[in-house]
Amino acid sequence: MIAENLHQVEQHIKEAMARRTRVPKDAPVKLVAVTKNHDVEAMREAIDAGATDIGENRIQEAKSKFDILDRDVTWHLIGHLQTNKAKQAVKYFSLIHSVDSEHLARALDKEAGKIGKCQDVLVQVNLAKEDSKSGIYKEDLRPLLDLVDALPNLRLRGLMCIAPNYADVEACRPLFHEMYEIFQQVKEIPFKTANISYLSMGMTHDYQIAVEEGANIVRVGTAIFGPRQY
């Protein structure tokens, strides 16, 4: 079932790519399979069916899986990160999607430096200014980007956002459209070390629209694994 779901999501991504108008139709999209509240057996099934990137929301849950998962995958931290978990975050994750403050950026830089790692990160933007979501506001974005670029043990790779959970999924489109425009503007900034490559946006309910509007990373859980196991 998980394998079938994964392949269906992959097919939907291909179809959404074909509908793109502002982005080259063959520009690749990375699918991050989000395994929050799903067990290692479900993860193995997805990986054996072709999933190469795994997303987790919480450090502690990821750690418990990382220690027993006997598969070679790329780990993404997609949930809110507290600064006191920075040490574990840089230990386990290849790409951290949720940098949203100077304090967190400095903590990650410090911990990455201790283990000789250059940690890839995305800056999370709260474009809709929802109180319930993390992320920096658009008007405060540039100073944080410049800071991350200047920190020696972080490598800025792009931006992430989470759209509001609208009843009508089409309502997400203007936000994704604007987020892609911001992403394109950020790519033009002459950073020192940043390699701006990734725009992470879109989840189970809205990933197809996100791809149509320019996302090149989508974070999909329920459509692959079914409802979460609590």
UniProtKB/TrEMBL annotation:
Keyword match Protease: no
InterPro entries per the UniProt record, alphabetical: Ala_racemase_N, PLP-binding_barrel, PyrdxlP_homeostasis
Annotated ranges, domain Alanine racemase N-terminal: 25-228
Superkingdom classification of source: Bacteria
Molecular function terms from GO: pyridoxal phosphate binding
SUPFAM superfamilies: PLP-binding barrel
Residues annotated as signal peptide: none
Family, similarity comment: Belongs to the pyridoxal phosphate-binding protein YggS/PROSC family.
Name of this chain's protein: Pyridoxal phosphate homeostasis protein
Organism: Mitsuokella multacida DSM 20544
